[in-house]
Design a protein that fits this description.
There is one protein chain. The radius of gyration is 20 Å and the shape is elongated. By secondary structure, it is an alpha+beta fold. The chain has one domain: Tick-borne Encephalitis virus Glycoprotein, domain 1, CATH 2.60.98. Helices cover about 15% and strands about 45% of the residues.
Length: about 140
């Protein structure tokens, strides 16, 4: 009886995992539309052969709010970009606060990384969000 119950459970698990992978949708944004996504998430650009994956934040040395710093710092983000059947890595850097701009082929990425550091608060990797607008350059 136990072996049969375990076999049924294992069969159900094998059915559920592939189905859950198929049902995950990748968010889509059009050109000139803002999208926010967490590390590990991809985004399709509607009407374009372009998919952007926010791999993660590689470094964050931005000066925390409420602190006077000699240097405003920067945040560096790693992206994987699928375009025209090829995949490329792109490292984009935002120095200080506000939006920054990066270029990839015929596209311009206006982006920001949130949250902004605060004194005494640590940002965990999963708390980061890449806020981006993709447009034609």
């Amino acid at each position: 009886m136990r072996k049969r119950a375990l076999a049924i459970f294992a069969g159900l698990v094998m059915l559920v995992f592939p189905l859950s992978a198929c049902s995950a949708e990748i968010p889509t944004a059009g050109l000139d539309q803002s999208i926010s996504f967490p590390p590990g998430q991809s985004c399709l650009i509607a009407g374009e052969d372009l998919t952007i994956k926010f791999v993660g934040v590689l470094s964050d040395s931005r000066c925390p709010e409420g602190v006077q710093c000699v240097w405003e710092g920067e945040v560096t983000v790693e992206l994987l970009i699928k375009y025209g059947g090829a995949t490329s890595k792109l490292y984009i850097v935002n120095r200080g606060g506000g939006d920054a701009v990066a270029a990839f082929r015929d596209y311009k990425f206006s982006f920001n990384v949130t949250p902004y550091p605060e004194t005494g608060t640590e940002i965990t990797p999963e708390e980061y969000r890449l806020v981006m607008v993709v447009s034609r350059s």
